DNA sequence: AATATAATCGTTATTACAACGTTAATTAAA
DNA sequence: TTTAATTAACGTTGTAATAACGATTATATT
């Protein structure tokens, strides 16, 4: 069958905004760009969409390349296609954001890409329109996290309530009343208390919790409101 | 400067999911596909992204071509890129949804494309993955309309409260308590009552209202909740 | 005058929740 | 052993939102 005539093809790339949380700080994984132009500048991890790949597949592959991780929370954010966004060649980029458990991340791999985790407030200037992508991803995460329990994707299997609260506080850049937070979280029924404690941050130690994955899945679509509006 | 080597270009299209509301029914504007394959099948209005166009620009152009309308509410929905989604040639489609005032729509233009408005519940089978796009658009509109006053984009300058309510009822496919609805809507302060009435649907007639565009803009980002949960 | 639709007013019970107070438990350090 | 720091839990109060009703009034056409 004939192909569409007179249509100029365009390159299609995928860029990943990768969030991680180490229990203290919300971070972004960036790589040093290996090719010209903008060589050695900080950039999102990206790549071109392969021949037999769909967009989600490309994003998964790129994420796997950089982090060694399968089964990561990944969501399409937005497609960016200004004609001049890449000075070399017309490229449309479909941006995805990923939420990963930073502990599962295999550090060896990143040497190849000169990858580094940056605290959100210390992100350097990025190439092309990647700054815009990061901002959009943050906005979307705030929007999503206000209604759905997505932030658990950033946590390790076992985590403490203080860690969880600190995560919410960083996403919304505002303090949360601890007493109301505990109430809301326990009322959601999403957490299963463990017997062990994390004693690295206090004398008393904070109990570990696990996510009840059944309930998490079941409640994901129901409009929760896990945020608080404290000063 | 050298181009990226070994990267296969892909065609980039934009497809528009165009919603309209005639005061009675929420509708979708579809066109009869003019070219093979799937010639004469119903389809979303789409087109390829031009050389000097960004994605939003392409969507605007395509919308203008079909409807004759500028300044339409338009939002990027999702990018679709399965390798086999278009049997002719690998094409990534960026879907946009549009909310238009159906009265402003110029009927002459659509003859060229054999366009037709379909009630939401009477949409025919569409080509390629366009069904999926329509479903995603409906989901997104429900999501958005629950928090932001976007449905006003579908209404003419002057509209009645019964029309507005019927619109919400169709979007959520469930009846709304009229007394609570009026209270909520008037409390929002978004409506300005006119002196005229629409007498086409009742003896008494229903007052026309206009949208307070200042307040609409101001309140758009604040998380409203304009929906009701009546049976 | 009858009638159908539009619009207003009112009530009640429930839920969500922010803001703040208080206390018990735990354990490292003094 | 006592002290201090921290986590975790329970309680209170006031307010706002709102769903689910009931009842009534208004209006203009037939």
UniProtKB/TrEMBL annotation, chains A, B:
Q: Does the keyword Hydrolase apply?
A: yes
Under the heading InterPro entries, the entry gives:
NUDIX_hydrolase-like_dom_sf, NUDIX_hydrolase_dom, WH-like_DNA-bd_sf, WH_DNA-bd_sf, WHD_NrtR
Top-level taxon of the source organism: Bacteria
Instruction: Name any one Pfam family assigned in the record.
Output: WHD_NrtR
Q: Where is the Nudix hydrolase domain?
A: 9-142
Task: Write down the Gene3D superfamilies for this protein, in alphabetical order.
Answer: Nucleoside Triphosphate Pyrophosphohydrolase, Winged helix-like DNA-binding domain superfamily/Winged helix DNA-binding domain
Q: Which UniProt keywords apply?
A: Hydrolase
Gene Ontology MF: a single term: hydrolase activity
PANTHER family per the record? ADP-RIBOSE PYROPHOSPHATASE, SLR1690 PROTEIN
Q: What is the name attached to this protein's record?
A: NUDIX hydrolase
Query: Per the UniProt entry, what species is this protein from, by scientific name?
Result: Pedobacter polaris
